[in-house]
Write a structure and sequence with these properties.
The complex is a heterodimer of chains A (about 110) and B (about 900).
Chain A (H helix, E strand, L loop, with lengths): L12 H8 L7 H11 L11 H10 L3 E7 L5 E7 L1 H26 L2
Antiparallel strand pairs in A: 1-2
Chain B lengths: L1 H14 L1 H25 L4 H12 L2 H11 L2 H20 L1 H30 L11 E8 L10 H10 L3 E16 L2 E10 L3 H5 L5 E2 L15 E4 L1 H7 L10 E4 L2 E8 L10 E3 L2 E4 L3 H4 L16 E5 L5 H18 L1 H4 L2 E7 L8 H36 L1 H9 L4 H30 L2 H4 L9 E3 L6 H27 L3 H5 L11 H36 L9 E5 L9 H16 L4 E7 L10 E7 L11 E7 L3 H5 L3 E4 L13 E5 H7 L9 E4 L2 E9 L14 E5 L9 E6 L3 H15 L9 E2 H7 L2 H35 L1 H9 L4 H30 L15 H27 L3 H6 L1
Helix pairs in contact in B: 1-5, 2-3, 5-15, 6-13, 6-15, 6-17, 13-17, 13-19, 13-25, 15-17, 19-25, 19-27, 19-28, 20-23, 25-28, 27-28
The chains are: A alpha+beta (about 110), B alpha+beta (about 900).
Chain lengths: ~110, ~900
């Protein structure tokens, strides 16, 4: 289990976090679960490395955090997408799809 | 917007730092708990679950450290934390801190002081004067030559009238006089200035008023004066009702109409003025006559203010076209005459022209001192970083980023240099008037003034130097420290051998550079000293021993020529019979004094000058016996006698250069020249001499008898075996006996008079010697530190050698030879550098080659001597190592 490396392309974590917060606020573990769940276990986030990314996004004003209570009645810090964050998500998604399209074209060529 | 937000976050974060940290801990704890719960629910034991959660989460402390770094607000916090930590570290090793701060204070202080001098003397020399960036000195040129030419008053008026690109022109001619208030008579310096002077400069008198436009013209019509604040305080005891009172200046009663503000010293670098009078009073202060209507009399020193946005080139072009027009309109007086603008730091008629090369070199030298100081501190930091390697390794292992470590070390460096910068600015503040200390003129009443200016520009520069030097000295140690090999470094440090590891190679390189830089400075000092000595010993063409010069200011005491003639006649009689006096002679201009020689257009019989050349030469009016008294040999013909008076045919004595230029191949005696419409016969040829400075080139020069060209103001040349003081007292007594109202000007040996003219050279020597000394001291510290560190690191090796039978002398040789090797290498580099650098010293060197072997040899010996001292102490300590203890470590 320890050998299992998170299959994340470098630099995409921020985008994935923003995406996972698109519809509702989540706490750290929730974000990790969500990414893993949507990607059907293809993407696995090293849980700890979420936090540096979360603080970075918060400082940039793309997400906002507040304390709340989780499903199993625990105190947890919930992150919410801000308006600027939504814009950023759109921009990054576009950027990403352009890059993947490019890469796909290169790989598809014979 | 995002920037603002980030800033806000940062600020807010700082305030809430404690809660932030707690929040992060709580959040991560909560995450781990939730994860653990989930694992337990999946069937693990609590302990297993906890471990699994921790594994899945990753290294908690590393992540916290990374998270902290991610928060923008933390970088400011880091800085404060680093600062606090740095201060603590410095307090823990005060010896290191004091030494480092001392080195940097020297480095930054010298630079701040030199900047402040440059600012205060070259760039913005006139306190309170507005728009000095648009202020230029204005001088006259003759056939393109600029040296020592002024403007004439009519030309000045035409410039004012015809120019469009200038805001204003001002006249400022320095004059000396005696100022007697009550029973106290002292020398005073004043300015003959145009009526717009204070208005154009933007200086408002603090009491009374400046000059009115009409006060500038009308021969002797407006005896009014503005006095300086210092004069007001010192001579008039700050009399609040001073305005409207009168004061005799050069025998004319002047009304005091204003007091200049405290900080305003006039517009002549080097002298602080006591009073100002308008141009209309020129004749009263100039013993050579009325000149306001004489287009040929070029006596004005002028400044011009350009209109905003006008470049110097445009302004110069306009001046040149006006000069062209004047040349056409007044060919008699203006043929070949032009005007030239000079930046203030190149002002041709005050001390600045001489000072700027000195200050340029001083800037270079100060920079060297800074480099050496940085190398020293760098070295100290390197030594310390070895001691702190364990700490650094720990922090890296605990997850601190390398960048973070480098930042920490930089912050510590910045702390050092900030303290040093504060100290350095204090040093500069103390030194701001230091240049005056070297000044040779010590005349009561005359204030010599070379002020440094500590304005915001100097402060900004000092801060820049501070940050720059931090980069310089902290970079290498910081990079070094952050490249610790984790696995290797956690094991305890091994003991080195003398000069083994890469670190010590780096430190050696630094010492190497230090030695090289100080060698350059020492060699430079040597060159300047040598040129000083050369200058001292060079023959000015007259005898410098047993000759005393003095003068009396008859002109400002109101003597007219007839009365003056009687006075001089009687004085000569009286001095001649004083004990110990061999001979005495009059001379209008004493050689090497600040008085300007007469100069006149000449016509020379039998010499056809090229079309565009106007023959002129300087000349002096001297009395009988002048040549034998001052010791200038007559090579042909005869010397002047008593009989060469107004009743005899006019005669002159030419110098060798003049004779050779105008009468080549002839013996010159009996030839004639025409000066001011008067034909004069050459009766003698005198050997060439220096007339103003020892640096001047030989030029045509001639003498006429004072009895045929009498002026009120003359100097005395006295040949005597007595000391200057003895003569001074006797001289003063005799003057008092003739006229109790008179006092002699300074009575000094002619050698002293000559020395005064080498002020700049002496200043350069002093500055470079002081800075060179500092550099040497710093380099010695560096060498010492490296060697003693090397010894302390190789205690084990040295102990082993001792145990194996090495004697005291072997160990001494081992350590010393390494130190000397370093020094030797540095010296080789230094010689190469010095050979290129000393060529730039150019005109400060007098009859000394920039590669003078003596100066280089001296520098070599000094460096080696210092190196021996610096290495001996550590070497000696090495021999005291107890081998038993050394091996047990």
């Amino acid at each position: 289990m320890g050998k299992e490396k998170p299959d994340l392309v470098y630099g995409t974590l921020d985008m994935l976090i923003l995406k996972s917060l698109q519809h509702e606020p989540r706490h750290g573990l929730g974000i990790a679960d969500r990414i893993q769940q949507i990607s059907r276990d293809i993407l696995r986030v090293e849980q700890g490395s979420l936090y540096p990314a979360l603080y970075r996004l918060e400082a940039q004003g793309w997400i906002k955090a507040e304390w709340g209570v989780s499903d199993n009645n625990r105190k947890a810090r919930y992150y919410k997408l801000t308006a600027a964050g939504r814009k950023q998500l759109v921009a990054e998604t576009e950027h990403w799809s352009r890059i993947t399209m490019g890469i796909n074209r290169v790989l598809a060529s014979t | 917007m995002p920037l603002l937000r980030a800033w806000f976050c940062r600020l807010f974060g700082l305030v809430r730092k404690q809660s932030r940290e707690a929040e992060m801990n709580a959040e991560i704890q909560q995450h781990l708990d939730a994860l653990t719960e989930r694992k337990i629910a999946a069937g693990m034991s609590p302990k297993e679950a906890r471990n699994a959660a921790l594994r899945e989460f990753g290294g908690v402390e590393q992540i916290k450290e990374r998270a902290r770094e991610q928060r923008l607000w933390l970088s400011a916090d880091d800085f404060l934390q680093d600062l606090r930590f740095g201060a603590r570290m410095l307090r823990r090793s005060p010896g290191f801190a004091i030494l480092a701060i001392l080195c940097l204070t020297l480095g930054i202080g010298t630079n701040a002081a030199v900047f402040s001098w440059i600012e205060g003397i070259l760039i913005r020399p006139y306190p309170l004067v507005a728009h000095q960036d648009r202020m230029f000195a204005l001088g006259g040129t003759t056939r393109g030559e600029t040296e020592g030419h002024g403007l004439s008053y009519p030309d000045f008026v035409d410039l004012e009238k015809n120019s469009t690109l200038f805001e204003s022109f001002i006249v400022d001619r320095i004059v000396g006089t005696s100022l007697s208030v009550g029973d106290r008579a002292e020398r005073a310096t004043g300015g003959i200035v145009s009526a717009n002077y204070f208005d154009a400069l933007g200086v408002r008198p603090m009491l009374g008023r400046g000059f009115r436009p009409e006060e500038g013209t009308g021969r002797n019509a407006h005896p009014v004066t503005v006095i300086s604040y210092l004069t007001w305080q010192d001579r008039y005891k700050g009399d609040p009702a001073i305005i409207g009172k009168t004061q005799y200046l050069n025998g004319v009663q002047h009304m005091i109409i204003g007091v200049a503000p405290e900080k305003f010293h006039g517009t002549f670098i080097g002298y602080s003025f006591n009073f100002w009078v308008p141009t209309s009073m020129q004749e009263t202060f100039d013993s050579t006559g009325y000149k306001l209507e004489d287009r040929g009399a070029r006596w004005i020193e002028s400044y011009a203010f350009l209109k905003p946005g006008v470049t110097r080139q445009q302004a110069q072009a306009e001046l040149s076209s006006i000069a062209q027009r004047l040349e056409n309109d007044f060919p008699e007086t203006n043929r070949g005459q032009g005007f030239q603008l000079f930046p203030l730091w190149k002002t041709p008629f005050n001390a600045v022209g001489n000072l700027s090369p000195t200050l340029a070199i001083t800037t270079g030298v100060a920079f060297f001192v800074l480099l050496i100081a940085c190398a020293n501190v760098s070295n100290l930091l390197l030594a310390r970083s070895l001691l702190r390697r364990h700490e650094m390794t720990m922090r890296l292992a605990l997850g601190a980023g390398r960048r973070r470590l480098i930042k920490q070390l930089f912050t510590e460096g910045l702390l050092l240099s900030a303290v040093a910068a504060a100290g350095g600015i204090m040093v500069a503040y103390w030194c701001r008037n230091a240049l005056v200390l070297v000044s040779p003129v010590r005349t009561p009443g005359i204030t010599i003034d070379y002020p440094g200016q500590l304005d915001w520009r100097v402060l900004v520069l000092s801060v820049a130097v501070c940050i720059g030097s931090t980069m310089l000295f902290a970079l290498i140690p910081a990079v070094q420290a952050s490249h610790v090999d984790l696995s290797g470094a956690l094991k305890s440090e091994g003991s080195g051998v003398v000069g083994g590891s890469g670190q010590s190679r780096l430190r050696s390189a630094l010492v190497f550079v230090q030695v090289a830089l100080s060698f350059v400075l020492i060699a430079g000092t040597g060159l300047l000293l040598r040129s000083m000595v050369q200058m001292q010993n060079s023959d000015p063409g007259f005898s410098t021993r047993n000759v005393v010069v003095s003068a009396v200011d008859l002109f400002s005491s109101g003597y007219k020529p007839d009365r003056a003639k009687i006075f001089y006649e009687q004085m000569l009689e009286r001095i001649r019979v004083l004990p110990g006096v061999q001979s005495v002679a009059l001379a209008r201009v004493r050689p090497f004094s600040y008085t300007i020689y007469s100069s006149a257009p000449l016509e020379i019989e039998g010499y056809q000058p090229p079309r565009n050349e106007q023959v002129t030469a300087d000349y002096n009016q001297v009395g009988e016996g002048y040549f034998s008294t001052i010791g200038i040999p007559i090579v042909a013909g005869r010397e002047f006698t008593r009989n060469d008076d107004e009743n005899a045919p006019p005669v002159a004595i030419a110098n060798e250069t003049m004779a050779a230029k105008y009468w080549p191949g002839k013996k010159a005696i009996g030839e004639r020249l025409k000066v001011k419409d008067k034909w004069i016969e050459i009766v003698g040829v005198a050997k060439n001499a220096n007339y103003r400075t020892k640096l001047e080139q030989p030029t045509p020069f001639f003498y006429v008898p004072v009895r045929q060209n009498f002026v009120v103001q003359n100097g005395f040349i006295i040949r005597t075996e007595q000391s200057a003081t003895a003569i001074m007292n006797a001289f003063a007594r005799e003057i008092h006996a003739l006229d109790p109202n008179l006092a002699p000007l300074d009575t000094i040996t002619i050698q002293e008079q000559v020395d005064r003219m080498s002020y700049t050279q002496r200043l350069a020597v002093t500055l470079v010697a002081v800075f060179g000394g500092m550099a040497l001291f710093l380099a010695a510290i560096g060498l010492y530190a490296v060697m003693s560190y090397a010894v302390s690191q190789s205690t084990r090796e040295l102990g082993l050698r001792m145990a194996l039978g090495a004697g005291v002398s072997d160990l001494l040789r081992l350590v010393m030879s390494r130190g000397l090797l370093l020094t030797g290498g540095g010296i080789v580099l230094g010689v190469v550098a010095a050979l290129t650098v000393t060529r730039l010293m150019g005109n400060l060197l007098y009859k000394v080659s920039p590669r003078d072997p003596l100066a280089f040899g001296l520098a070599f010996i000094v460096m080696i001597a210092v190196a021996l001292v610096a290495c001996f102490l550590p070497a000696w300590r090495a021999t005291r190592i107890d081998p038993v203890r050394a091996l047990r470590i």
